[in-house]
């Protein structure tokens, strides 16, 4: 087991999902009681999200095909033969190549214009994703660093380590897990608030990570986790993998 001082140094590796399973589990337990590490993980995660959103995306295949098809319709210019008398080069080229040059210009403008519009759309989408990631990190940080934050730990039936952090003042909860296998295709993990026996949907996840649970804890006495069909279910369709009692 690492000392507390060693665990502080793992914030960056945790945010990048670069820890070994045993290190990740130890750090997850440490994270639930360390405000400084929570803030560091928040900053690292936000930066990683921005970097991921800023990665260049290649133009779609149909764009290349459209340009090639248009180029095939433009005839190549014939070789220029000197007439033996001086001419104004610019005038001669415009006269001889005028229709073809205009056609080629139109094709090029359309092609590059399409690429520019597509790139702008991609940039806007990336910016929106980065902003959403920032808001998510800020919300997670607010709950985990709240003065009244309370943390409980548990394990799933498969042995994955889990934690739930609640803040009565913010009326929100965060679920964290490590060692949770990725859900199979067509399946998803679903979180639940247990309102005295009535299960209330609280969000979906595919694997390890920190999730801001949907809805407010209210008077929920526990948090449950089940494996559901993709998209989730209004009520659990399988036995709980975990039922973690919340602090009073």
User: What class, by secondary structure content?
Assistant: alpha+beta
Any idea what the radius of gyration is? 29 Å
Mean pLDDT: 74
Strand content: 15-25%
Strands of the largest sheet, in order across it? Answer: 1-2-3-6
Low-confidence stretches: 89-94
The helix tally amounts to 6
Principal-axis shape: globular
Largest sheet: 4 strands, antiparallel
State the share of residues found in helices, binned by percent. Answer: 40-55%
- Span between N and C termini? 30 Å
Number of DSSP strand runs: 8
Order of helices and strands: HHHHHHEEEEEEEE
Subcellular location: Cell membrane; Membrane
Main location: membrane
Membrane topology: Single-pass membrane protein
Pfam family, one: RskA_C
Structure in words:
With 248 residues, this protein is of the alpha+beta class. It contains 6 helices and 8 strands; from the N terminus they run H-H-H-H-H-H-E-E-E-E-E-E-E-E. It is globular, with a radius of gyration of 29 Å. The two termini are 30 Å apart. About 2% of the residues have low confidence. One of its GO terms (molecular function) is sigma factor antagonist activity. This is Regulator of SigK. Keywords: Cell membrane, Membrane, Transcription, Transcription regulation, Transmembrane, Transmembrane helix.
């Amino acid at each position: 087991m690492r000392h507390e001082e060693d665990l502080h140094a793992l914030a960056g590796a945790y945010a990048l999902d670069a820890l070994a399973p045993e290190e990740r589990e130890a750090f997850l337990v440490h994270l639930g009681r360390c405000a400084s590490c929570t803030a560091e993980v928040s900053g690292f995660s936000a930066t990683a999200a921005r970097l991921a959103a800023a990665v260049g995306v290649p133009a779609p295949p149909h764009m290349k095909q459209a340009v090639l098809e248009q180029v095939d319709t433009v005839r190549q210019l014939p070789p220029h033969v000197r007439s033996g008398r001086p001419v104004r080069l610019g005038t001669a080229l415009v006269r001889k190549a005028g229709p073809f040059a205009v056609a080629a210009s139109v094709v090029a403008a359309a092609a590059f214009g399409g690429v520019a519009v597509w790139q702008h759309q991609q940039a806007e989408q990336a910016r929106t994703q980065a902003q959403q990631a920032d808001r998510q990190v800020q919300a997670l940080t607010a709950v985990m660093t709240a003065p009244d934050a309370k943390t409980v730990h548990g394990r799933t039936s498969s042995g994955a380590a889990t934690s739930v952090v609640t803040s009565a003042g913010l009326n929100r909860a965060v679920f964290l897990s490590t060692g949770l296998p990725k859900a199979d295709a067509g399946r998803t993990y679903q979180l639940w608030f247990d309102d005295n026996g009535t299960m209330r949907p609280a969000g979906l996840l595919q694997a390890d990570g920190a999730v801001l649970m949907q809805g407010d804890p209210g008077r929920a006495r526990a948090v449950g986790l089940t494996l559901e069909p993709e998209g989730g279910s209004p009520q659990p369709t399988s036995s709980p993998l975990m039922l973690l009692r919340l602090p009073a």
